[in-house]
Amino acid sequence: MIGVETEAVGLGELKVASDPSRVLVCYGLGSCVGLALYDAVARIGAMVHVVLPDSSMARGRDAPPGKYADTGVEAALAAIVKAGASRSRITARAAGGARMLSLAGSNPKLDIGARNAEAVRAALARHGITLVAEDMGGTYGRTLHLYVATGRLLVSTVGRGEREL
After folding, report:
1. What is the predicted pLDDT for the residue at 159?
2. Catalytic (active site) residue 26
3. 5-159 is classed CATH 3.30.1330.200
4. Rounded Cα distance, 45 and 67, in Å
5. Strand runs (DSSP E) across the chain, as ranges?
6. N or C: which end of the chain has fewer CB within 10 A?
7. What would be one Pfam family of this protein (predicted)?
């Protein structure tokens, strides 16, 4: 699209945008969860690329807060509010959380995708934010696009097409 600038949200990253020409993108979500927060009145969006369910799994102190569901949700909420969003208007949508390893079916602890999805849901609930739409689970990867100008959220999947959340 002309005049649109995509900005990748990498593993463990968190990005906030209010520029209507921006599209925040989480590429290749497998077991990771891409969480999009949006304030439709202020037209401010945030996206976080959650890699693991809980910061207690951290080996060091230098991990970005977006890497974990518990710290990522909290950091994304703080960042979008700081950018001018109203907490009462924020909506949340998420995609990813797939079971990418066949071994995960035999051991729930190995199903990082399901654990990530549940941890994101729980963290949102702790902060009083409703997850209004999701495309999580399954055994396939996804790419997530958040169009800041409109709040449109597209999930693309190889072989399954594109879907709006």
Report:
1. 81
2. no
3. yes
4. 18
5. 5-8, 14-17, 22-29, 33-39, 44-50, 90-96, 131-136, 142-147, 153-157, 161-164
6. N
7. CheD
- Which band of pLDDT confidence, cut at 50, 70 and 90, is reported for residue 60? low
Burial 3-19 (b: 16+ CB within 10 A, else e): eeeeeebeebbbbbbbe
- Which of these is catalytic: 9, 23, 29, 32? 32
pLDDT digits (tens, 9 = 90+) for 75-106: 999 999 999 999 999 999 999 999 987 665 56
Question: What per-residue string of b and e applies to 91-122 under the rule 16 or more CB within 10 Å gives b?
Answer: bbbbbbbbbbbeebeeeeebbbbbbbbbbbbe
Question: What band does 160 get if pLDDT is binned at 50, 70 and 90?
Answer: confident
For 119-158, the pLDDT digits (tens) are 999 999 999 999 999 999 999 999 999 999 999 999 999 8
Secondary structure (DSSP) of 31-77: SSEEEEEEETTTTEEEEEEE-BS-GGG-SSS-S-GGGBHHHHHHHHH
| 48's tokens | 């976080």
The amino acid that residue 125 corresponds to is: A
CB 33 within 8 A of CB 96: yes
Domain boundaries, the chain: 5-159
Task: Please list the residues that pair with 48 across neighbouring strands.
Answer: 14, 35
